[in-house]
Amino acid sequence: MFKKILIANRGEIALRIIRACKELGISTVSVYSKADEDSLHVRFADEVVCIGPGPSRESYLNIPRIISAAEITNAEAIHPGYGFLAENAEFAEMCEASGIRFIGPSADMISNMGDKAFAKEKMQQAGVPTIPGSRGILKGVENAKKVAEEIGYPVILKATAGGGGRGMRIVRAPEELEKAYATASGEAAAGFNNPDLYLEKYFEQPRHIEIQIMGDSKGNVIALGERECSIQRKHQKLIEESPSPAVSQELRERFIEAAVKGAKLVNYQSAGTIEFLLDGEKFYFMEMNTRIQVEHPVTEYVIGVDLLKEQIRIAAGHEISCSSAYKIRGHSIECRINAEDPDNGFRPSPGRITNFHVPGGPGVRVDTHVYDQYNIPSFYDSLIAKLITHGNTRDEAIRRMIRSLEEFVIEGIKTTIPFQLKVLNDPDFQSGNFNTKYLEHFLAKNNS
Q1: How far apart are CA 429 and CA 150, in angstroms?
Q2: Is the model's pTM score more than 0.90?
Q3: Last-in-domain residue among 82, 103, 124
Q4: CA 151, CA 177: separation in Å to the nearest integer?
Q5: Which candidate, 46, 5, 9, 62, places its Cα nearest to that of 31?
Q6: Could you confirm whether 291 is annotated as catalytic?
Q7: 424 in a domain, yes or no?
Q8: Integer Rg of the chain from CA
Q9: What's the burial of 230, exposed, middle or buried (CB within 10 Å: 0-12/13-18/19+)?
Q10: Domain residues for 439?
Q11: Spatial contact of 358 and 415, defined as CB atoms under 8 Å apart
Q12: Per-residue DSSP letter, 217
């Protein structure tokens, strides 16, 4: 096992990794920007290194500074968390070249599975259902027109190196395609330094289901159930749960079989997630995330496995310790508490927290790096806390979440808590009657 790990991240995920390391007897090093010097991930690490000013490109995205911090503190491994450099193949490669273990898959795996066209081709080889569309990268707008004609409108253009909704355009008619292609390609080039696109059939009202996988260096791969991620705004998730209210045991087994086949074919090692679109009883591979997910706690609650500790053990060369013969234990829901103003287009709301009280009681977990009088910097993602509840049934988990959101006090800034309370009390959400368009319709209904 590692003796010391550097955490190349910030906020709640950095603190989450520190906790896992401490329980494994591993010393921790936190890197931080000057804007984060008062964050809890700085306070609770064994050692800390300042790596630059507030802007991410000068700190958390500065690979040489992070590698130097690991070298001067004699850290044996680096955990990237999620976001920032977590799926950066160059960073993983530089870690290995410096003799530092990257806690995640190999640089080649990150690069290959981050290329959505390549990943789709591999899943097809594994027999995993994929969305009808182009075979690999489009060769130009004429190629896009031909594929769209073959599979039928509506279609969606996607950046092969994309994420977070950037480089994506929905096209519902042939006359819209040329302009959409130019816009998506330009956005992809600006955002990812790669203008390449691929095209797929667009499903109007699917559900977004993801499968948590674990693979080790001995060739073992297991899937740890599904997460329902359909409650999202502009491709950013706000509420997640496990298990999905739309997935039967028979469908779950099909999902798991497909995910394990795909992960085994590419010899996946580490924690990862395979994401699918569910249209009725049919599902289709969408993409693979080669990192730990923001919403991993709901899986931890219902499966009873510490995914961060498992990921660290695998990186140290151990076999997967959890069994595929698990039973789903009740139901879990996560709300991402963001420093945003829902009444003002979800505009970021940085600033000082003047009053802070977290909920408690049975089946309630709060992952956060903030506290009373903490000043939220303006440089980073607006996520400030994750509230997770667990119950014996979905209804109990929902009621517990409503009670916990009502107890959660954050003053001095705007947060998504009031909005999430409205969603949790909505009859359609409570009955499980929703899809990826739910929030779009919910906002329209509540703003009319």
Answers
A1: 36
A2: yes
A3: 103
A4: 14
A5: 9
A6: yes
A7: yes
A8: 21
A9: buried
A10: 207-447
A11: no
A12: T
Q: What CA–CA distance (Å, rounded) separates 153 from 201?
A: 7
Assigned token pair, 272:
């990862």
Contacts of 419 (CB under 8 A, 6+ apart): 342
Catalytic residue among 291, 313, 365, 400: 291
Candidates 439, 392, 401; CA nearest to 421 is 401
* 115 occurs within a structural domain: no
- List 356's β-bridge partners, or say none: 410
Residues 434, 377: Cα–Cα separation, whole Å: 34
Please give the backbone phi and psi of residue 103, each rounded to the nearest 5 degrees, phi first.
Answer: -85, 90
Does residue 16 lie in a domain region? yes
Q: What is the rounded distance in angstroms from the CA atom of residue 85 to the CA atom of residue 269?
A: 18
The enclosing domain of 156 has a CATH number of 3.30.1490.20
- Assign residue 280 the CATH number of its domain: 3.30.470.20
Co-location of 85 and 145 in the same domain: no
Asked if residue 408 and residue 272 are part of one domain, the reply reads: yes
Q: CA-CA distance, 33 to 404, in Å (whole number)?
A: 32
The C-alpha atoms of residue 193 and residue 198 are separated, in whole angstroms, by 16
Domain count, the chain: 3
Judged by phi (left if over 0) then psi (alpha if -120 to 50, else beta), residue 225 lies in left
Q: What's the rounded Cα separation, in Å, for the pair 46 and 14?
A: 13
Residues in the chain: 448
Contact, 420 vs 239, CB < 8 A?
A: yes
What's the Cα-to-Cα distance from 174 to each of 71, 181, 282, rounded to whole Å? 55, 11, 27
Q: Give, for all 448 residues of the chain, the pLDDT tens digit.
A: 999 999 999 999 999 999 999 999 999 999 999 999 999 999 999 999 999 999 999 999 999 999 999 999 999 999 999 999 999 999 999 999 999 999 999 999 999 999 888 998 999 999 999 999 998 899 999 999 999 999 999 999 999 887 667 889 999 999 999 999 999 999 999 988 899 999 999 998 999 999 999 999 999 999 999 999 999 998 899 999 999 999 999 999 999 999 999 999 999 999 999 999 999 999 999 999 999 999 999 999 999 999 999 999 999 999 999 888 899 999 999 999 999 999 999 999 999 999 999 999 999 999 999 999 999 999 999 999 999 999 999 999 999 999 999 999 999 999 999 999 999 999 999 999 999 999 999 998 887 6
389, 318: one domain? yes
